[in-house]
Amino acid sequence: MDKLKKMAAFVRVVELGSFVAAADDLNVSPAIVGRHVADLEAMLDLRLINRTTRSMEVTEAGQRYYHGCKTMLEQMEALEQDVSSEEDARLSGVVRIAAPEGIGAPILLDATASFQVKHPGVLFDLVFDNDQTDFVSSGVDLAIRLAISLEDSSLIVRKLTETRLALFAAPTYLASNGTPKTVADLERHKCLAFGGSRFGDSWPLMTDKGLRKLRQPWKMVVNQTHIYREALVKGLGIGLLPEIMAQDLVASRKLQRIKWHGAFPDVGVFAVYPNRTFQPRRVGMFLAHLRLHMRRQADGL
Questions:
Q1: Which domain CATH number covers 190?
Q2: Cα-Cα-Cα-Cα dihedral of 190, 194, 198, 200, to 10°?
Q3: What is the CA radius of gyration of the chain?
Q4: pTM score, whole prediction
């Protein structure tokens, strides 16, 4: 089983072209991925990937081994799906999820609805808030969190997808007030802050010197995402949102993404759950379903 894990890591390195990208995809550190590949090379006594600090190249032997690993892993997955299909059809019970209310509709509601089409015996108890979740007192199976980075040694953290922070405003607001192009331009605009943000009374701005806090004389501070979005739609000002929380309003042309000479950090969407030896199969199955659903959402599919 340990060898299969190493093979899976090697396959993702080859497919993604990067140890770092493979580590991010597998939700482990690049050092662990590097160690898995090195262990395979030691076992085979072959160089699979030639790597430097700036580049990597899969060797001829590495290419042959990749195709063999890929075939074997696909066969293993097909076998697991075959033997578990009958059990999956009988999935039942309640999955209790805590999540920021900003991703409740349509993202999480769509994911739960599509999962129930395949598994009608599974019920969901959804708790929407913007606070940290106490798994013990709330009885939550799974929590969704948005953060630039997230580490908690007492919990299992799995990255679902990544989304960009961006500025948004109603087309009517931009038509009346113009479109800001620089940080200095923002000082002449009505800027709205989200009070439930982990960044407090500031926007996280990427600069040549790293992350800095951008503060404005906020025209309004709102601590609920749906009210914050509605304030932007009504043309009350410019606001900062993860793109995954605004794409439905952009698609309906109620909001417009502002292109300007500035950058905000990417935000990870994480699933967090207690470090339990046993996790109900319905929770693990839904987690895999949610990850695929969110990545499609982030890609605009």
A1: 3.40.190.10
A2: 50
A3: 22
A4: 0.66
